[in-house]
Structures are given as C-alpha cells and as structure tokens.
Prior knowledge:
By secondary structure, this protein is an all-beta fold. 0% of the residues lie in helices and 64% in strands.
Amino acid sequence: MYAIIATGGKQYKVAEGDVLAVEKLDVQPGDKVELPVLLLSDGKSTAVGSAPLQDKTVTAEVLEQFKGEKVRVFKFKKRKRYQRDKGHRQQLTKIKIASINA
C-alpha cells in the first residue's frame, strides 16, 4: 500500500516505514504529525479526490530537524571585476512514515 502526500508545496510517494526529508515543519523531534493524502492505492484499487479520501491521513514521526546541502549562487560580469558568491542551506525535517490510516 502506498499514498501520495503533500507537504511544503511538494508531493511525495510514501509507504509505511519510509524515511524522507521534507521542507521544515514547525514541530519537535519525537512528535507525531498527520499529513493529508492526495492518492491512496493498495495495488488493486486506487482512490483519488477529496470525497473518498476525506478521513484518510498519513501519520509520521519526526526524527530530526537539519539543514540540507549548501547551494552556491555565483554570478559575475566579465571584464568588470564584479563577482558575487552566495550560499544557501535549506532547513529540512526528516520524518518516518509510521502508518497509513486507510
């Protein structure tokens, strides 16, 4: 059984026991979080839409808060001796899918 969930403006395909990094959630490590389901499939049938998935959720456990890899932004103008180097590290949350409540 798998589900498509939405969090942080992105969609993820998850199954029970999966560990994934999502955009930062405002929760503490060890907390449980409920995520909305967009699609639910058990291999034989697939449920999509708000009516069949109204009471369906995915429960995940927060493992840690961390920063992702550094993304370098470098720009320059040739022959003008202008260059700018800037870095950014996105804040992420690592979660483990505990159960798919179907």
